[in-house]
Amino acid sequence: MWGSPGLLLTLALHPALAVAPARDYCVLGAGPAGLQMAYFLQRAGRDYTVLERAPGPGSFFARYPRHRKLISINKRYTGRSNAEFNLRHDWNSLLSHDPRLLFKHYSAAYFPDAGDMQRYLGDFAGRLGLRVQYNTTVLHVALDKDRRAWNGHYFVLTDHKGRVYRCRVLLVATGLSVPNRVDFPGSEHLEGYESVSVDPEDFVGQNVLILGRGNAAFETAENILGVTNFIHMLSRSRVRLSWATHYVGDLRAINNGLLDTYQLKSLDGLLESDLTDLAILKDREGKFHVTLKFFVEEAGTNQSADAVTLPQDDSDNFAMRVAYDRVIRCLGWNFDFSIFNESLRLSSGSEFSRKYPLIRASYEAKGSRGLFVLGTASHSVDYRKSAGGFIHGFRYTVRAVHRLLEQRHHGVAWPATQHPITQLTSSVLRRVNEASGLYQMFGVLADVILVQENATAFEYLEEFPTQMLAQLESLTGRRARHGLFVVHMEYGRNFSGPEKDVFFYDRSVGHTEDAWQSNFLHPVIYYYRHLPTEQEVRFRPAQWPLPRPTAIHHIVEDFLTDWTAPVGHVLPLRRFLENCLGTDLRSFYAAATAICDGPAQTCVCTCLPLCRVHRLCPHGFRMNLAPDVCNSDAADGNKSARGAELGMGLTRVPPTPRGPVPSPPPPRLGLLPGDHFSWSALILEPCFSKMLRQLPVSGALWRCTTRGLRVLFPVRPNAPEAAPLLPAGVLEKAGAREHREPPAARSGERADAGPRGRRPAPEGPRTAARRPQATSRAAHRGVIADDHAHLEDHAHLAAPAPSSLQG
Amino acid sequence: MMCSSFRVFRVGISFVTMCIFYKSAANSLPELSPHEYFSTLQPGKASLAYFCQADSPSTSVFLEGLHEAVRPLQDYGISVAKVNCIKEETSRYCGKDKDLMKAYLFRGNILLREFPTDTLFDENAIVAHVLFALLFNEVKYITTPEDLQSAENALKGKANIVFSYVRAIGTPEHRAVMEAAFVYGTTCQFVLTTEIALLESIGSEEIEYAHLYFFHCKPVLDLTQECRRILMEQPLTTLNIDLFIKTMNAPLLTEVAEDPQHVSTVHFQLGLPLVFIVSQQATYEADKRTAEWVAWRLLGKAGVLLLLRDSLEANIPQHANVVFKRAEKGVPVEFLVLHDVDSIISHVENNVHIEEKQEDGEDDVEGPDIGQAVSMAFLQSYIDVAAKLKGTSTMLLTRINCADWTDVCTKQNVTEFPVVKMYKEGENPVSYAGMLGTEDLLKFIQLNRISYPVNITSIQEAEQYLHGELYKDLLSYSSVSVLGLFSPTMITAKEDFIEAGRALKGYVITGVYSGEDVLILSNKYAVTLPALLLARHKEGRIESIPLANTHAHDIVQLITDASLETFPEITVENLPSYLRLQKPLLMLFSDGSINPQHEKAVLTMVEQKHLDSLTPCWLNLKNTPVGRGILKAYFDTLPPLPLLVVVNLHSGGRVFAFPSDQAITEQNLLSWLKKLEAGLENPITVLPAQDWKPPLPAYDFLSMMDAATLQHPTRKAPECLKDPDVPESVKEHHEDKSAVEREPTETLRIKRWNRSSWFKYAEESLRRDKEL
Q: Where does the record locate the signal sequence feature (chain A) (predicted)?
């Protein structure tokens, strides 16, 4: 009956254990991350409980931020009805199926009040009926080894009343709750952000020193900026502005009033110094003096301001020579390691050990299997990179963790949708244009497309942690044997950073062939012929978020983050996918209509003369045509067998060898002139005009009638469909010029391009060396403009007056 | 006024030239050598020349279009020629690649433009492109609302603007605009766009079609004032545009003092009604102002005249203040008493347009679409269906854009696009799986009006059903009606049939009868129960098929096969059904209807079971012109028709042709097929087993990124940067790395564009990464 002596020992240590039934999942903390996980567990019908210290959810928000204004944006309008897209700009809502539980219904303020967040979390837990046990302070977490347990051990939690909880999986969502303190002589005189007064009246006419340089420090300063004599702000590192770093945890513009007053020669100021070198001394009047630890140590233990040398004694212009009335510490927060038994090995000597528990990219603790860290405390995975420390980021990583758990413990494979390969381009397009998880957790979560055998179909997996790519098969329960695509969002490699000028002159990229130099967030698609190994992931080239792929595609950045431009975005993407898979992904329209029977003939045309049915023909054929007929390989393989059945004597002839693969087109790059129409491709193939070709996928559709071609429904009213529709001679010229120029030559040329944001006026015939640079972020439009400008040039040279037609 | 007299002159010229060419060189495309061609060029005269080396299938289609364009272009004084490069000396216009020949537009011997042949895809495209190039000054191409604004500002007080939006350059609408520009280009400024956004910015809502506006800018003297914009409501054809511009240029208000019955203005000649505002001396000024106001409101819809009652002897009723003359000839004028301008306008509008009403519906068809070409094309079919169903059905057709309503589509399990689902109260939604065309969709919707299978309640009803009396209106949509017969105890068999009936819902009419007296039917049609009766209404035949132990899936198959014809005319729509049989096609190509004797010969052979291993069929080139292309692929030159071939698509792709010197008789056919079977015939062609490869290479960003890294020596270049074209040497001479790196980036880039080496290169680098 007793499993092992080890168990006996544990039982002896925990007398209540024998009666405590084990739960599958215990979630520590009912903050946003804990509730988010509870939601997924509840929806999956799992056995779980949430243990929360406070009497209600989100107790953090009862006190913090101290000045009550959240800096996560509450964007209520985007002009779009796509719920998924709108989450891209909603920083406060948790994920749920209930549209009433969107934060926009809780506050009208762009920067909402913390009280609204608490109210929202209360509704979230209440309305969804999440099982939260409030007023339960877990004081101790230990391991109980048991071979039969899911992870080889149970997590044993003891609360303040001595109750014991045995959990198969422990999900820690306790956030960062311990104020970060720096120990130096005089640090006992500091007031902390967590307790300092928020009433500006208390600071009237005072000299204030604030230690720290984060949003809390600036928020505190902002509150008292108008009543103090001056505020000095001291920290070790330079200020990091979030609009320069693209990291929401850095100083947000809403908080930076002090930067203004400092640089506009008011009395406030910023200073850099290592805090651990400092000492703060209190004088007889109760004012504080800043000095160096070195002096204090020299003076011995009697640390009075009068006894210790102050820096101004040596140098009469020492910056902090004035006495301060208050010194406030705003140094951030640390994870509360205290309740975790050492056997859990949550912390180690890494650089984040002070602040964050040590976890893998799968959010599982490195030290103990089955312990996952969620929410703010899991931010070590993408600290200073992405949004994993914030609601709008970790709501997705929590979902990823839940999906991993479902696969690991319940055999539920990572959700995936199956599509025929013909849907590949549109699937990618759909996601890059609406997916919020990819957008918020850029660089951390990525969609994975698993190509199926013979590239006839694919599985689409959403929001997988990219750093776990090598373990994809075991973590998701899906097979990646025939190659995969990873769809990812990235900023330009050298664009973001604390000292970078993100407003530099040529920051936007408009030309498709320069897409790889895009600076703003844009989709990047990696193709791997084989699943990368762990080694490849770990030892990937510097600055690469993923191992070096077989091929890579950047979708050029878009000012509207709307990657649907047929020529600028869709066509290059489709070409990329086609070349990775070695197949033609164009859509053929195979239906007949009364007004237009041309396109209908496409498939007939391709079937009969070519002996092959294009895989896309099933669009029109799908009711009637067995799939293997469409699959050229299958048809080929059974060739002789079928011939024999037919009794036509044709089998005696050996199967015809496949015709020579047509030699690749000349190395012309990217968009070719005819390419816009796809007609040049047409000519290479024995199918004829009088048929439909797809323009760059979603652009517009040429359908032919016996009377002529018509174009149908350009998709986006504002997309540059016109580009392919301009006279082709023009496009060819422009195209040829663009493609033959090396990027280097162009980047040099950028310096003398016309003023940004304005289309350069036509200025006579252009040569290849002086191509006008597209000049706005929406520069893909500029391409067209340029092309037409060129048309004008051309015409000046040669266009006749109409009267001269008759000669 | 210099301008307008010039216009008259020009039009005159073009008509004259038209006549000349009409008589002399109608439709012929001269074939010249380069030398001949250049010697014919006359100064100032435009000429379009297509330089070609040899006729290949890919150019034949272009040539077809060019042939058709010869006459219309000659109407505009543009000569057309085909220049053969092979015959004699070459020219620089001949190019090198024989499949990528271009057409060139010259004026005199100055080259104006070159056109890749694929832009000139048909007659309309050719005419449109050529005129577009020549009328450069007359037709301003713009892309932004700002361009339009500045064009408008520039012309205020000077000239009117004809602004048109066409969906693409080279469309028939574009051609029509260009032709209009040829005539009116000197009096009006033509402005053209293909940007939908631009059209939207001036307030158009229905943008599926081309639009044309007339901007009355000439009367605008105050620059802050807008030009009045009048939308042409008719489709964009040359004739309509011509009439429209004529009405726009006609005087706004004409004063008359004649009997309205006899008055005719340009408006009336153009088919528009006339509105007479009756005036008298005392109120002349006020009436004139009213009439002008009305005229502006009715511009393009009706002609407005001021009728001076005082100087008129005729019979205008005392109180009438408006006279309305309908556009139809011979209809008496109406005398009206209308009290304000709005009632005049609405009277005119109500008598011009027929009001459209919306249907109320009980059913709901959902057609999601996402920004994808197929969806977009299908949408047209869908709209056509909606138009056809209008007023006849209680069906509500809706569309959902899944790009916006992702969650809705996900909930409906819609993952592929386009999808049509039909929702009926109390039933599960049905997904449409047929051809994406109007006819098939319409058929599906119509057949779905009844539930499947139809429960037949009596022998009489069953007979009515079998004889097509029960669902007369649906017979045209289903070639056969199927009736399942079961005795009341055959529960499983009946269930199987019902399942099959549901699966065929919307494609074939099915019914089921299992009354106590079912034996009467089984006896009558001599079949044992359970059974199927198959009524072929066209042939008036009823077949019976026993159904013992047949599963639902097989029943579906059975019914599907039964609805195939024995000697069908192959069309685009039905080809897949016959290809599915996986037999070689015995196909008779016919230029028009099939010869009854040939048909009889084949049918006899079918009856005698000689053709069981083949799918006999025929193709009417008149109905299915793509057949011509097929024949060209089989034979180099189009052979005389009719023509019989055996095409074996499923094994080997061999094509055999029945000797053209033999008559297509049973006897000859039989012996030919025997020879085929014995392997004594040679195929006329073997269709290539061509794969669908990527049509063009993609951007190779990976090497661009590598090249950039190489250019910055400060950053360590990844080891994998080796030249793809020398992988062997790289492998052997690992130490040679520096040499490769010294190679100019430009060269590297170009080399890496070579698609064939792309993956080889990637693999190479991967391998090397592993080694390191």
A: 1-18
The answer to whether the CB of B108 falls within 8 A of the CB of B41 is yes
Q: What is the band of A610 on the pLDDT scale with cuts at 50, 70, 90? A: very low
Chain B residue with Cα closest to A745: B746
Q: Which long-range contacts (CB under 8 A, 24 or more apart) does A40-49 make?
A: A40/A398, A40/A399, A40/A402, A41/A402, A42/A128, A42/A129, A42/A130, A42/A131, A43/A97, A44/A402, A44/A406, A44/A410, A44/A412, A46/A410, A47/A23, A48/A23, A48/A24, A48/A131, A49/A23, A49/A25, A49/A131, A49/A132, A49/A133, A49/A165
A763 has a pLDDT exceeding 80 = no
User: Which two three-digit tokens encode residue B686?
Assistant: 């073997």
User: What DSSP line would sit under A358-386, residue for residue?
Assistant: -B-TTSBBSSSTTEEE-GGGGGGGTTTTS
Backbone angles phi, psi at A567, to 5 degrees: -90, -45
For residue B253, CA distances in Å to B247, B289, B363, B635 come to 12, 10, 51, 65
Nearest-angstrom CA–CA distance, A610 and A607: 5
User: Chain A contacts of B772, Cβ < 8 Å?
Assistant: none
Supply B236's token pair.
Answer: 């964009």
Decide: A456 and A428 in contact? Cβ < 8 Å. no
What residue type is A537 in one-letter code? Answer: V
CB B510 within 8 A of CB B484: yes
Q: Is the Cα dihedral A583, A585, A590, A595 positive or negative? A: negative
Using the predicted structure, report yes or no on whether residue B361 has a pLDDT greater than 80.
Answer: no
Residue % of chain B over a pLDDT of 70: 78
Q: Do A699 and B373 touch (CB under 8 A)?
A: yes
Residues with Cβ < 8 Å from B21, sequence gap 6 or more? B71, B74, B75
- Is the dihedral angle over the CA atoms A238, A242, A246, A248 positive or is it negative? positive
With an 8 Å Cβ cutoff, are A551 and B435 in contact?
Answer: no
> Cβ of B119 and A710 within 8 Å?
no
| Smallest Cα distance from B699 to chain A, Å | 6
Tokens of B496: 């199987």
What domains can you pick out in chain A, each with its CATH number? 19-176+336-403 (3.50.50.60), 187-329 (3.50.50.60), 415-581 (no CATH), 590-751 (no CATH)
Residue A780 pLDDT grade (very low, low, confident, very high; cuts 50, 70, 90): very low
Average pLDDT value over all residues in chain B: 75
Measure the CA–CA gap between B104 and B93, rounded to whole angstroms.
Answer: 8
Ranges of H-type helices in B223-372: 238-249, 266-269, 284-297, 341-350
CA A466 – CA A546 distance, rounded (Å): 7
Q: What is the pTM of this model?
A: 0.60
- Residue B512 and residue B481 in contact, taking contact as beta carbons nearer than 8 Å: no
User: Which of A702, A786, A793, A805 would you mutate first to test chain B, the one with the most B CBs within 10 A?
Assistant: A805
Contact A806 B758 (CB under 8 A): no
- Segment A343-369 shows an average pLDDT of 82
Q: How far is B678 from chain A (nearest CA, A)?
A: 6
Cβ distance B378 to A675 less than 8 Å, yes or no, reads no
Residues of B whose CB is below 8 A from A515: 699, 701
Helix, strand or coil, per DSSP, at residue B267: helix
Most distant CA atoms of chain A, gap in Å: 114
| Chain A residues touching residue B436 (CB < 8 angstroms) | 589-591, 619-620
Cβ count near A118 (within 10 Å): 18
Range in A179-193, A266-280, A515-529, B753-767 the model is least confident about: B753-767
DSSP code for B354: P
The partner residues of B510 in beta bridges, in order of sequence, read: B482
Backbone angles phi, psi at A19, to 5 degrees: -95, -15
Placement of tokens 């240029």 in the chain: B249
